[in-house]
Amino acid sequence: MRKHFAELKLEKFKIYAFIIFLINDSYNWITIYLKYSNVDNFYKTIKNSIKLTGQQIDMTRFGDDFFNQLFSLFVNWLIVGLVFLFIFHFIMYVLFYKGKRSAYMYLISVGIVAGFSFLLIPLNNISNFNLNSLIQLTQAITYLYATIGLFKFLPENKVKKKLQRNDNNQG
Hints:
The chain has 171 residues and is mainly α. The chain has one domain (9-54, 62-156). The chain has helices at 2-7, 10-36, 39-53, 63-97, 101-124, 131-152, 158-170.
């Protein structure tokens, strides 16, 4: 791995990392949308939430129209949230490509959390290993690969370097 990153040029790595994060993030956002915009899952969640409260609530008194409107509201907010997330991540990708340290640090955080999460989720349910588990393991490997590269190519901390120069000039 060291040899690979030693031979890899920064610009080529930026393209690799951009593609890895964009594909993985897009897959995750689509998966979230498909799972949570499903009306049957929504009704199951509502019913389970009511059961968890321990109260006996007759859901028929609300009428179908109430739950349809609630579901529509939920899906609209889900779309808004995913669009904002996409915009934020796209801004981070652009800042990363421009070499901004804050974007590197953000993507390192995302890579560590997502990499280990997608590694542990399928391993936690190894007896029910399926295509989704394989996709998650692939995501884990690619996120962790990109994270290692981000550490390798992390720009210097300009503020820290400037403070060190000032200390050297004063001393």
